[in-house]
Design a protein that fits this description.
Bound molecules: zinc ion
CATH architecture of the largest domain: 3-Layer(aba) Sandwich
CATH class of the largest domain: Alpha Beta
CATH topology of the largest domain: Collagenase (Catalytic Domain)
Strand content: 15-25%
Structural class: alpha/beta
Oligomer: single chain
Length: 399
Amino acid sequence: MKQLLLLGIVILSFFSTAAQAERTCGFDVIQERISQHPNYTNYLTNKNLSYKNFPKSKADTVIRIPVVVHVIYRLNSENISTSQINSQLAVLNKDFRKLNPDTTNAIGWSKADVKFEFILATKDPNGNLSNGITRTQTATDNIGLSNQYYNLVPAWNRDRYLNIWVCDIGPSILGFAYPPNAPGVSAQEDGVVIGSTYFGTTGTAQSPWNLGRTTTHEIGHFFDLLHPWGSDLNPSCSTDDLVSDTPNQNGPEYSCGPRFSCNSTDQMSNFLQYVDDVCMGNFTLGQKTRMRTALYTQRDSLQFGALFEITSLSETPLEPKVLIYPNPSVEIFNVELPKNTLLDKVEIEVINLAGKLVKCETKRGINGLIINIDTAPAGVYFVNVRNGEFSSTKKLIKH
Ligand SMILES: [Zn+2]
C-alpha cells in the first residue's frame, strides 16, 4: 500500500512537473472563442480598417499606463507580497522600454523601445487613494482558469486601468489575456490573468518562469499581438501574426533554439514565444507599431489613464513651457508653445473627466494654435500637448 501511495506521488509529481515544464498561454483558445462570435467578422473588418487608416506619424512619446493588480488567493502563499508585485512592474518597465539587459538574446532582430511604462494606480475608480493592489480571499480552486475571477473581483474601469488578476490558474497554462474590444468579452473580465507562481521575480515566482516574462507576453496580447505562428490552434507556415518583421513559424517551440521553419530562422528571443523567461529579450519594431496602434485605436482612453494619477498638475523644470489661455475659456483657447518647437508634429488632445477624447488636432503651421471647444459641454478637461520631443498636460475649465 505504501509502495502504491509512493508510486502515486511519483506519477503526480511527474505530471505536475511535465505540465509546468513548457510554457502555454490561453490566448489561442480565447482567439478561437472570439472567432465563433456572430460579430467577429464585423469586429475584424472595423479593426483592420482603423489600423490601416491610423497615421504612421503619430507622436512616439512615452505612454504611462496605470495598473491595478487584483490578488485573489485561496492559500496564504497565493497572497503574494507587495515586493513581488513591484518586482513585476520593474520587469515591465524594462521590457517595454528596451532597458532589459538580455536584449542581447535577440541576435539579428530589431529591438524596439515600445515606450509604454506601467505605474501602480494611486487612486481607485472613485478617486480614493489606493496602492493599486486589491486582495481578496476565495474558497474556489483554480479560480483564474474557471473564469470566476471577474465575478469575485470585477475589473476596475478598463478605460483607465490595465487590470491584472494574479491567482491560482492551474498547472496547464501560465496566463492569458484578451485582445482589445473582442466581441463577447465583457468589461468586467477584460485584462490579463497570471498564475501567482509565474508573476514577478521574487517571493513565490518559480523557475523557469521567475523573470516576469509571462506578464510581458500577456500584455503583448492585451495590445493585440499574436503568437509568431499566428495564434492558430492549427498553426502552419500560412498562419501569420500580421507583423511584417517577425518571420512565419510553423508552431510553438519551447527550447531557446536556434530553430528554422517556413524557410527562415525563427525569432526565438521574441516575448511572444513559448520559450523560458531567460531566453526572451525583445519586441520587434513591427510589434511596437501594432501595440501602439492598438492602444491609440482600440484602447484609446487608456492612454489618458495616467492623467487621473496626477494630483497637482505641474511641469518639471526640464519640461518646456507650454501655456494655454484663456483659462477658464468659453469657445476657444490658445496654445503657446516653447520656442523652436517642431510645429508640424504638434498634437493637441482635449480629454474629459471620463477619460474620453473630445478633441484631437494636429497643427502644422506657426499660426493657428487655436483650439475650438465650442461644442464641448461645460466642465473640467485635460489638455495634452505633445510632439516627438515632449508632452505636457494642463487642466482647462470650460464655461
Ligand atoms: Zn501567448
